[in-house]
Write a structure and sequence with these properties.
200 residues; Transferase(Phosphotransferase), domain 1; two-stranded antiparallel ribbon; 37% helix; globular
């Protein structure tokens, strides 16, 4: 694996070849741009430290990959999302009091509140017997989007984590499945931004 950071990992740069294998496009182009311009292209995939140092790094690429995985699992774009409020009464009383957060922050807040079914895209929940795989991939994604760069796994470790996820070879969609009641249990450890890990 090259030691050169990609600098622009996002869903629009992941293409499929004729065999359905994923290929990452746009490699090396970020190196031709000024650091500030390269970082500006990342949008919601940008690692927190890049807002300050404007540098490309492999750790930032891992963060961007984690956001990409969260995008696939949640069906949400990595833009700003309203943060869940403590209870339904507060939500009804003041919809505007919800603050906008990044996709990783939104996922952490939903997991923290144990609203697990809210995390996953309802289209994914139509497939049978993939809850364990979805939860395992959520673990991978949350490890990738740790706030501190040194707490993120290397991309090699990420690949090994993904390869260790058991896969059901034919998870056909269940047309009659009631996705509103599906709520796989999650035991997740996340970085709360201050270097401490919390379990949910």
């Amino acid at each position: 694996m090259s030691g050169i950071p990609h600098g622009n990992i996002k869903s629009t740069n992941v293409l499929l070849d004729k065999d359905g294998a994923a290929r990452v496009a746009d490699f090396g182009l970020a190196l031709l741009l000024s650091p500030a311009h390269a970082i500006a292209r990342l949008g919601g995939y940008m690692a927190p430290e890049q807002a300050d140092n404007k540098r490309l790094s492999q750790e930032a690429d891992v963060y961007s990959f984690g956001v990409l995985v969260l995008e696939a699992l949640t069906g949400k774009v990595p833009a700003q999302h309203p943060q869940p409020l403590p209870d339904a009464d507060t939500q009804r009383r003041d919809k505007k009091s919800a603050t906008a957060v990044s996709l990783p922050e939104w996922v952490r807040s939903v997991v923290r509140e144990e609203w697990t079914a809210e995390v996953f895209d309802v289209e994914l929940l139509r497939y049978r017997n993939i809850e364990e795989e979805m939860v395992a991939m959520l673990h991978v994604a949350l490890a990738c989007v740790a706030q501190q760069p040194e707490q993120r796994p290397s991309m090699g470790d990420v690949v090994r984590m993904i390869e260790s996820v058991p896969v059901d070879q034919s998870p056909m969609p269940e047309e009659d499945r009631d996705v509103s009641v599906t709520s796989p249990s999650i035991g997740i450890t996340t970085d709360d931004g201050d270097g401490r890990l919390s379990s949910y």
